[in-house]
Amino acid sequence: MKSSSTQTAEKFDTSRANEYAQQSRIALAGYDACHDLAACMLAANLGNTPSANVLAVGAGGTAREIIAMAKLEPNWRFMAVDPSAPMLEAATQQLQANDLLDRTDVHLGPVEDLPADESFDAATLIGVLHHLPGDDAKRELLRSVRARLKPGAPLIVAGNHYAYASQPLLLAAWGQRWRQHGASPDEVKIKLGKILQGADPPHSEAAVQTLLHDCGFTDATRFFSSLFWGAWLTCKTG
Question: Among 46, 192, 198, which Cα is nearest to 130's?
Fold first, then answer.
């Protein structure tokens, strides 16, 4: 049986990686704002920390979270992790273009491959959870991230929540978002189909909170919302 990380990586093949930077900004209205605010939330939580080591899980594609954090905090260092080789290659190209490879370690594979040694001051998990099938896989990833965070360290969690079919108005508005960017009705169906393929988002904001509590994190503060998407800051307990 394939692991959930392997299944997710297979979804993000070369074709999807090549279009990710453009398509993700259409699918998520406010894509850049979400990543910028995530950096601001971490900086606000960590306060006047002179340096920090940040784990970016699922950073493949644009590496936008790292670019945003690095611009705000010139003394932070990063670990970019992604199980998809094409997505990680795309991220590496962005890191190189922004002169950030000297501040970023790049790891191809699941976060479970990293030592569980509480070495990170903060972490981001953006656009990942809704691609994992079932709550068990989501908990497994959250616990793996927790094991690599220092006590009290902040975690940014962002992604889709709500079962898509339960929110027909939001789903219809999502289709209109593509049409707004020039897609035909047939193209809209294809775009939505690709987005929905294998996706299993938590079914509510309360479900997100429950997952975090189950995995040893505090109540989360939401700081961004866009249609199905939400973004929260939580902290490791203990």
Answer: 198
pLDDT value at position 1? 33
Tokens read off for 82: 């992604």
Q: What is the pLDDT of residue 12?
A: 62
Q: Domain tally for the chain?
A: 1
Find tokens 């960017």 and name the residue.
181
C-alpha–C-alpha distance, residues 215 and 61, integer Å: 27
Please tell me the predicted confidence (pLDDT) of residue 214.
98
Residue 119 half-sphere exposure, CB side, CA atoms within 13 Å? 8
pTM of the model: 0.92
Residue 66: CB partners within 8 Å, gap ≥ 6? 54, 56, 59, 78, 80, 91, 95, 100, 104
Supply the CATH number for residue 22's domain: 3.40.50.150
pLDDT, mean of each 10-residue run, the chain (238 residues)? 53 63 89 98 92 96 96 97 94 96 97 94 97 96 98 98 92 93 92 81 97 98 97 95
- Domain range for residue 228? 4-235
Query: What b-and-e string marks burial along 90-118, b requiring 16 or more CB atoms within 10 Å of the CB?
Result: bbbebbeeeebeebbebbbbbbbebeeee
Q: Are 35 and 73 in contact (CB under 8 A)?
A: no
Query: Which of 1, 193, 8, 17 lies closest to 88, judged by CA?
Result: 17
Q: What's the confidence (pLDDT) of residue 2?
A: 45
